[in-house]
Amino acid sequence: LLPWLLRLRPSRQRFFAFTLSVVTVLGMGFADFHAPPALNFSIFYLLPISFASWYAGSVGGGVVAVLAIVAWSMVEHHNYPERGDLLHLWNACSRYGVYIFIVVLL
Questions:
Q1: 106 by DSSP, 3-state: which?
Q2: Alpha-carbon gap, residue 77 to 60, rounded angstroms
Q3: Which of the pair, 14 or 68, is modelled with greater confidence?
């Protein structure tokens, strides 16, 4: 898949990398939703974020990071409804900071 991606024109390469990353984040969110609550998927969301940042640019990586945070937050809120909204917001913001740091580094 990667050699094929590298042969594409740059505009198609960015689009394909972004689309693949979005689909991967949605799939990971689905898997995270159905996994046991004790299993933390947050590190795995870095793979599509890094892929999008490298091939689609920092804007694409930032959008994928936002989608990953939304997916993770929905799963977290579903698994732990007893936690307050402020705690969920804090966790989402801190994780978003880490993801954006990775986007900027790449």
A1: coil
A2: 26
A3: 68
Cβ 101 vs Cβ 58: under 8 Å: no
d(CA 51, CA 60): 10
Continuous H helices in the chain: 2-7, 10-34, 46-79, 85-105
Euclidean distance between CA atoms 30 and 72, whole angstroms: 10
How far, in Å, CA of 49 to CA of 62, rounded? Answer: 8
Please write the tens of the pLDDT for every residue from 41-88: 888 899 999 999 998 899 999 999 999 999 998 998 888 888 888 888
pTM as predicted: 0.86
- Residue 10 CA to chain centroid, in angstroms? 22
**Residue 2 C-alpha from the chain's centroid:** 19
